[in-house]
Specification:
Strand order of the largest sheet: 6-9-10-3-11-12
Oligomer: single chain
Shape: globular
Number of domains: 1
Distance between the termini: 39 Å
CATH topology: Rossmann fold
């Protein structure tokens, strides 16, 4: 197998600006199949900028560099193409979509993806069985399936709902932007179990977080520390534990 076929995401010398401010500065990152990467770093270091850039947010201007996703040029793809090829972004602050039920939203998203991939529409009974099973797995009451997307949900319910979307869509790459933000311990454990259940040899996950607590449940393969739009250190879970004790200053002072 070609070595490139084992790579889900390859970011090369990526620089990005927004509102006239340079945020990412020559970032390099490679994510292979089956890997879980955690990204940590102080506020303003470029973590969420990376997530939004990969997802195709129009407010982020790429000034240099390349991104390849599944050995294809990501930057030439529309947002829809990225999603349909298997890119999923979990938002730090999931939005509400009143009037559009979770069931209708997911059914439309899944079938749009299947059409893009030249697959048949998922049978309604198969879809509903899978949806109800996934909701149960994440502790979401069946009544949430008929409610508007995130409409009236608590912070924890919104995050569980996003993980449900991720599990239903079965993406090749999931980028979770501070999924643990605002979660209590019980909700965090449920979310972590959902993320862990999605792991496979053919898919990968990038988790953006400020805290080690979620990572203790997920145990990433790599932990990267961002500062000034670059990765300044890479390690494993032990690095996250060290950051919890020391903060970022001890690393930043070395740069």
């Amino acid at each position: 197998m070609n070595i490139e076929d084992n790579i889900i995401l390859k970011i090369s010398d990526l620089s990005v600006s927004t509102d006239g401010n340079q945020i990412l500065n020559g970032l390099n990152l490679t994510v292979k199949k089956g890997e879980t990467h955690a990204i940590m770093g102080p506020n303003g270091s470029g973590k969420s900028t990376l997530a939004k850039t990969v997802a195709g947010h129009p407010d982020y201007l790429i000034t240099s560099g390349k991104i390849r996703f599944l050995n294809k040029d990501l930057l030439s793809m529309s947002v829809n193409e990225r999603s349909n090829l298997g890119l999923f972004l979990g938002f730090q602050y999931p939005i509400e979509i009143p009037g559009l039920s979770n069931t209708a939203f997911l059914k439309a998203a899944i079938n749009a993806q299947r059409k893009f991939l030249d697959l048949k529409v998922m049978p309604a009974n198969e879809f509903l069985l899978q949806l109800k099973s996934t909701a149960d797995q994440l502790g979401l009451d069946q009544s949430f399936l008929s409610r508007g997307v995130n409409e009236g949900f608590s912070g924890g319910e919104k995050k569980r709902n996003e993980i449900m979307q991720m599990l239903m869509l079965n993406p090749k790459l999931s980028i979770l932007d501070e999924t643990d933000s605002g979660l209590d311990i019980d909700s965090m454990k449920v979310v972590a179990r959902g993320v862990n259940s999605s792991r496979s040899e053919d898919s990968s996950t990038i988790i953006i977080t400020h805290y080690e607590r979620l990572l203790n449940y997920l145990v990433p393969d790599y932990v990267h520390v961002f500062f000034n739009g670059k990765i300044i250190k890479t390690g494993n879970l032990e690095l996250a534990n060290e950051l919890e004790k020391k903060g970022y200053e001890w690393l930043v002072q070395k740069k």
